[in-house]
Every structure is written in C-alpha cells, then in structure tokens.
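Practice record 12: protein with FO1.
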Amino acid sequence: MKITALAGGVGASKLLDGVSRILPPEDLTVIVNTGDDIEMFGLYISPDIDIVTYTLAGLVNPATGWGLTSDTFHCLDLLLRYNESERWFNLGDRDLATHIYRTQQLRAGKPLSAVAEQVCKTLGVATQILPMTDTHTPTTILTDEGPLHFQEYLVRRGAEPKITGIRFENIAQAQPAPGVAEAILEADAVLLCPSNPLISIGPILAVPGMRQLLQETAAKIIAVSPIVGGASLKGPSDRMLAQLGMEVSATQVAKLYADFLDVFILDQQDSREQPAIKQLDLQVVLANTVMRDLESKMALAQTVLTALA
Ligand code: FO1
C-alpha cells in the first residue's frame, strides 16, 4: 500500500517513525510543511524537513524531537559571542552541516526539493521526503504585539503573544513542489499526521491547487487528531485555535479537513465527540493517539494502516 503523508513537527515524525517500521519505507512519501523555514546566521533552516529526515534516519535527538542526537553546541557558543541577538535559536554542531550544505546548494540554484532528496540519500532515508513547495513561503503570526515569524513566535516568545491571524507569505505564487501532485494522486491512501492544523498542515493546504488534489484523488484520506482531551499534547495548537475564535476540540480539527477527509482517528479520551464528527460524514476510529514510546508509535501506526485496509 502506497501512503502519502502530510506532516509538520514532532508529533508527525513520531507517527511516521511507526509507519516506516511497518510499511516498506519506499512505500511512504512525506509532504512536509516549509512555512517554519527561516534564515538564521545566514543559513537556510528547514526545521520540519529536518525533523522528519533525522527521525526516519534514526538520528533525531529523542529528548527534543528536533536536532541531532548527542549534538554539541561549540560553534553556536562562539557565534553568539559575535552576535548575541540570535541567542534564542539553537543550532547544534552536526546539525549545522545540514544547514551549510542546504544553503550552499540553494545559492548554487538547486531547488529545496532537490536538496531534501540529496540529504535523504546521504543519510540513508529510503522514504521520499518532499517539501510542500520550492517557493519560500514563511508563516507570519499576526499578534497583538505585531507580526512575528513563526519561529520567533514559537521559540523566541514561547507562543506567549496573543494571536490575531496567520499569514503564509508568497503563498499565491507558490506551486506544489515536483512530485507532490503525483504523490497525492497516485497514493492508495493519504495520511494527515497529528500536526498543528493551523501552522503545520495549514500551510500545506494553502499551497494553490493542494486542496483540489486532495478532493480529486481516489486515495482514502485519514487524519489523526492532534487534540487530545481538549488540549494539544505539544505545541500551541489549542491556544491558537482559541485565540482565533475556534473551538478547541478534535471536532474543530475534523471540520478544517472535512471537504476532503474520509476517516478521522479520535483519541479514546474524546469519545463523546464521535457523533459530532460522524455528522461531518466521516468514519470515526477510536484509538490511543498519545505516542510516548516506540510501542505506542507502532500501535497507532498499525491502527492507521488497519483503518486504511
Ligand atoms: N525548537 C525550540 O524550541 N528551540 C530551538 O532552539 C530550536 C532550534 C531548532 C533548530 C533546528 C531545527 O530543525 C529545529 C529547531 N527547533 C527548535 C524546532 C522548531 O522550532 C519547531 O519545533 C518546528 O519548527 C515545529 O515543527
């Protein structure tokens, strides 16, 4: 079974880790959010691409879910002595190699998708990892303190400022990256990972043509809820939904995807939401969606694959 996943962030990479241990890794393609991308220290950082790639390569730092395991920060220490103002974003010594390589290749005219492919090859990842687009479309969070790049909002400010809107810069000029349309149209199933629906899956769906591809594909489309017990497990999904005037619930997430979705995986803790989600004309599967260890990642991955069979 060929599966194409839409992913962003640490929750997505945990589920994909489980899926890639059950399916042959070549049968999985991942379309990744690039709205989090940012230039720091003159280097192009693509956090969600790296999180998924490092996870599937078995190299991710298990404590943070991003960066490389056992990395050191000697280069950053000296860099910050030159430029104190970028102290808020941590780049490990080995992680820097990926950013230096990516930046060199982009400056030489290579598209982001080609660089992602080369990084996968080098790190031994057989799963195809595609950026949603090759155009730089950074996510701006509009807040009561003014507009902030997503990383400034999340990492520098700890998601403290109150948000009033979200803008995906340059999105109207963006096109799906090479391979994205085929990956959606030719898949047997499409999986929306348990990622923030507004700033991880949202930017992917905002790429012109993406929602139509999801509506047109014959693939069965399944989403795993990122909201459990009325809150997000990690990250600011819950407060962002609330501050933008939306309900903080799994049902709200299902509504955001209802125009193309077939199946919704709802956490057991939220079973009382089952009727509301069924009313959206979706099949509902109850499961434990909290992934604390390899066993729970693989159990959730198996639930997804069984629901798709
Ligand atoms: N997240 C943090 O909370 N603090 C950091 O200093 C940080 C650095 C960082 C460097 C490279 C990278 O690929 C990811 C990094 N992240 C960091 C994670 C990232 O900010 C977010 O978790 C993702 O953008 C959300 O998916």
